[in-house]
User: Fold these one by one.
Assistant:
Number 1:
Amino acid sequence: MTLVRWNPIRDLATDLIDLQREINRMFDRFFRGFEEEEERAISTWRPVVDISETDDEYIVRAEIPGVSKDDIKVTIRDNMLTISGEKKQEKETKNENFHRVERVYGSFTRTFTLPGAVKVDKVEAKFKDGVLTIKLPKVEEAKSKEIEVKVG
Amino acid sequence: MLRDRAITKKSFTTYITPPADLYETQDSHMIFLDMPGVSKDDLNVKVIDNRLIVQGKFEIEKPKDSEVLFNEIEKGEYRREFILSGDVDRNKIEAKLVNGVLTLTLAKREESKEIEIKIN
């Protein structure tokens, strides 16, 4: 293994980015109805997600590189969406010398409480280039209605 | 071995550094990079002198009038540079992209492979 020179700027930059992410996450949790169950103790890593909402649906995107489609499980129960699976180390590297291992492996799970009811039978999930996209159409009642107020 | 220049002046502001695993076998070096969201067409792997440069773009389609609830995915462009050690055959670098993971296999040059010498 070669010695890599310590780069304080890089370490600092990484720390700052981590801190920024954590603060963003805190804000997300605080302000949004889309709540996440805390399961950090169980899983070793958590895929990062983007969740957005339109009038008709919720769109969940998760970065899960290195996991095959068949190793990802998406379930909805009691209005809770769970994404779980396992990222395995590449077979061919098991018996080799490593110089650097930065990627994370192991099982993961993330659970979110949906703020409104969704059409469970119409949920679509697709997996492409390591990104999982789940589209959850809202049921009619859960759609926000705009009521115009007429000023007489 | 392969040295890596994760942070260049440019990447400090613009690029995402994908995490990498580096392995060595008897006749090759292997690099695994997590680059979720990048398709084959948006990926660029090149060798300049002794530098191996990996760069990839990804686009996340955003529906109109959507409200963001969680925003954890870093957006932008991936880039990472590796400095090739002398034992790598520049012309024998293979790249494979599966499920968002780029696998690079860098074959070692014949003359730098380990040879066992028989003792008579």
Number 2:
Amino acid sequence: MANDREILREIWEGKLPVCFQLDPNEVSELQQPDPFFLMVPRLSYFPLVTDKVRKHFSRYVDPEKQEQEMWLEYDGQPVKWHFPIGVVFDLYVGSDIQLPWNITVHFDKFPESQIFRFSTKEIVEAHFMACIKEADFLKHRGQVVSSMQKKDHNQLWVGLQNDKFDQFWAVNRKLMEAPSDQDHFKYIPFRLYMDDGYKQKLIKPITEDGRRKTLHDLITEIFPNQPNVKIRTHGMVPPMETPIQWMSEHLSYPDNFLHLCLQV
Amino acid sequence: MDSMHLSMSWDTFLKDIKEMKAHSDSIDDDWLLNQGRNHEYGAYLSKKLVNCFSTSLSTDTPEKSDSLITFDYHVVYNPSYGCPVLCFNAWEMNGSLLTIEQCWKQFNLANFDYKYHTLTQMEHPVLMKPFITLHPCKTTELVQLFANSKNVVVSWLSTVGPVVGLNISSHYAKLTN
């Protein structure tokens, strides 16, 4: 069970300074808007923290475009904001870190074939809950989520949205318990990011003979021929001998997945 | 079928979609079998279909008018749930993608709260792009009902397809028994 509270806290409190700037081609006023600075939680999602960014920039764009859905760009790529913020950062910025993180804001030409439309908070919530359900299906065949009440689901979401650690973990701890007859999950919910996508696979936390699998074991199951890769998550490089059951309990994002970025 | 978890194995999925593709060719239906590169579960079926809708989909023209919508349906394997997934994107004639709100309206889900856990955008497991997806979380239960079918994908697809405007010809029924 996830019992190392200090680590859970530390992970929860991870934040990134971001500098948002409106695409100069979309400024329709004579005066350029000031950039907008924000400290954002790594565990949150951009659509949950950018209301103020929208408000700050919208009056500088063509009035006809002010109501269009805002989107974000980093380094020429639309930001995949259905990933948690920390995942986007580890994935796009990696080890060559320069802070604040410069992100360009757009109101025009939404890249609808590339990124999700999050027109309301309910849609972000639906995405988040779908991830939690999938993770619980991997860990407990979906039995914990389905035994919860709607208010528990709501508490997870509101806890994340309002940055309330205790509120979130009061419910999330149930999702992090191993089944009563075992001390580990059925499979480890994880995504291993590389190139332009990620890999998912059914990986058990223990070997056939009952040994706890490590991060190294997980990587070897996915890349049998490349044992020497490094993994980044929450901005750090965890040791390869870390047991994946422990990682799943302590280093998962609120969506209950481990998001592991391959370092090249 | 994997009797341990009552989910569908990748091999069964692959067999089922290959049978479906072969049958599609024999009756001149338009299903395509695609293969994503460097992907363990990369094979999937797809079919493009033009539907004519008599209701107005756009929000700024309240009066009813006929509009032609192109649907691109995909049948993909979800390794987490061990089940098939039906997803699609749909375009208006001007090339703009239908939004989820337009799809909810079209498929009579707009007034129900369960729309949020029935039909939303999800990532296509092979193409890694947003597709409007029938949620897989209930599919495993549905798939169990077809334990006796010789082609679970066909049985499942003919059941759930009509929810999102995809009707499977009864010719495919012979694959199931």
